[in-house]
């Protein structure tokens, strides 16, 4: 059973470790992403996820095993999927869809989910998944090199 759980501050190093796989996958689409001198990717600054009430970090879990993560920004107006990742061996099996739905249900209201233009697999995943769970009640725009889907949780089927 897939579920989400908040990442604790004490687990920040674990999240950084998992994010190395995400950054590696993303390097296919952004040529500027390079290894640092210690052969790791530059870590994200995650401080806002422990310091600001509007930022939330989650592990995506399959029973007790961590299989991905999500970073969310949420305020009174809109929820935004900042980053979302499921390990390759768990992709295409419905785990990402289940985790995303859990996240959408955890934060009521409007949502924005975006993908860079070059990341066709992410566009296909999000577009198809959101159309499916909202019965097509979503809008999509292209702006500044990104596709952005917007919907409201009241449309979740």
UniProtKB/TrEMBL annotation:
It holds the Pfam family Acetyltransf_1. Residues 2-157 form the N-acetyltransferase domain. InterPro entries: Acyl_CoA_acyltransferase, GNAT_dom. It comes from the Bacteria. GO terms for molecular function: acyltransferase activity, transferring groups other than amino-acyl groups. SUPFAM superfamilies: Acyl-CoA N-acyltransferases (Nat) (SSF55729). This is Predicted acetyltransferase. It comes from Terribacillus saccharophilus.
């Amino acid at each position: 059973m897939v579920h989400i759980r908040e990442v604790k501050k004490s687990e920040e190093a674990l999240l950084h470790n998992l994010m190395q796989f995400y950054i590696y996958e993303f390097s296919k689409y952004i040529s500027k992403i390079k290894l640092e001198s210690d052969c790791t990717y530059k870590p994200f600054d995650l401080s806002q996820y422990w310091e600001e009430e509007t930022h939330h970090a989650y592990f995506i879990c399959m029973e007790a095993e961590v299989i991905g993560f999500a970073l969310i920004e949420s305020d009174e107006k809109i929820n935004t999927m900042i980053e979302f990742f499921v390990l390759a061996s768990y992709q295409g099996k419905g785990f990402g869809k289940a985790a995303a739905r859990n996240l959408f249900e955890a934060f009521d209201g409007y949502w924005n989910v975006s993908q860079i233009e070059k990341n066709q697999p992410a566009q296909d995943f999000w577009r198809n998944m959101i159309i499916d769970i909202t019965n097509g009640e979503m809008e999509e725009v292209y702006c500044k090199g990104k596709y952005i889907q917007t919907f409201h949780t009241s449309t979740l089927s």
